[in-house]
Amino acid sequence: MNILQVISSNVAGGRELFCVPVSVQLKEKGHKVSIMCKKGSPVEAEALRCGVEVIPTGFSWYFNPVEIFRAARALRKGGFEIIHSHWTRDLSNLIAAAALAGGVPIVCTKHVYSTTRKKDLFHAWVAGRIKLMMCVCELVRKNLLDTIPIAPSKVVTVYNGIDTKEEWRPGKYGMSFRKEAGISGEAFLVCMAGRINSGKGQHVLVAAAKQVLETNPEAVFVFAGRPEGNEEQKYYEGLVSGVKEARLENNVRFLGFRSDLPSVIDASDAVVMCSIFETFGLVLIQGMAMEKPVLGTGAGGVPEIISDGKDGLLFEYGDHVKLAGLIKGLIENPGRRKALGTAARRTVEEKFELGNTVKAIEAIYRACVKSRS
């Protein structure tokens, strides 16, 4: 098949970057795959690094006539058989472009939870013109049916997945990150990865870190990710300022965006996610795949990933005291760390392996292309 993945968002989140490993595996299975994205975006950089063809787009909001005609021209020139959108905001532009290009079928992955009902004619029009919506978890599937006028038969759950056989393999990267960062092999290293904003809750882990360091002064906490926009930049600057005031720069470090996240997690002893609400939480399964104990807030779709006390640990959003206690418990009990990590790896292999995700997506593509012909 000739497949076009589309994501015009310009940030470096899980929703944006997920299409790249999917595209790589589809290429390995013999398909022709291109990614339509913004020029200069993190998606473009990652796609080019992985050898995936990139087609630039200037899609903005819900209707951009100039970009619609450009996309239609690219669709005709590329001979694409199926379009896979990873952002619902792109759908109206894609529907118009696909119609101009002869009716290329469109599917979409819904990565996020909606807090508003959209039972209007516009959303009914969009829902009626796509073949299928793939939701990253059951929570999102149920939410979509509650908020959008779409037939239940057009909505399925396809969990996100990661490559556990090659990229996310325990021990593959060893202590390379610790050597680069000058972190002792004896220090207990906690990693939090994700876009830096208040919703992701980096401040919660900073507060917990201060408590942990009172009794475990050698521990190190690293934050991989960067802010996007003025508000997030202010939040980030507040975090950095607070760490400096507490004189914890050696123990609490902000790494910026890391394209080598697997090496950071491989060198860590635990992975934390503090989001107020997360529909999926890709970083959790990344940590689990590396056999690390993961700690996440028990909200949104996280309980579909973590079984508390079996393959990870849950805490309430904002409860830095509980989080600090959980981290201290892991420091003091290496046996429990090992048991949680082993169980976590098993969960990812059984439920969140990228190969299974791609197989399910591929079957959906084939059914859509077949129905068109």
Give a structural overview.
With 373 residues, the chain is an alpha/beta fold. The protein has 2 domains: 2-161 and 353-372, Rossmann fold, CATH 3.40.50.2000; 176-351, 3-Layer(aba) Sandwich (Rossmann fold), CATH 3.40.50.2000. Helices cover 44% and strands 16% of the residues. It contains 15 helices and 13 strands. A 7-stranded parallel β-sheet has the order 3-2-1-4-5-6-7, with helices on both faces. Strands 10-9-8-11-12-13 form a 6-stranded parallel β-sheet. α12 packs across α14 (334-351). The two termini are 13 Å apart. The relative contact order is 0.12.
List keywords for this structure.
alpha/beta; Rossmann fold; 373 residues; seven-stranded parallel sheet; 13 strands; 15 helices; 2 domains; 44% helix
Gist?
44% of the residues lie in helices and 16% in strands. With 373 residues, the protein is an alpha/beta fold.
CATH superfamily of the largest domain, please? Glycogen Phosphorylase B
Which CATH first-tier class of the largest domain would you pick? Answer: Alpha Beta
User: Which geometry do the CA atoms define?
Assistant: elongated
Distance between the termini: 13 Å
- What is the CATH T-level topology of the largest domain? Rossmann fold
Radius of gyration over all CA atoms, rounded: 21 Å
Largest sheet: 7 strands, parallel
Structural class: alpha/beta
In terms of per-residue confidence, which ranges show pLDDT below 50 for 5 or more consecutive residues? none
Proper CATH architecture of the largest domain: 3-Layer(aba) Sandwich
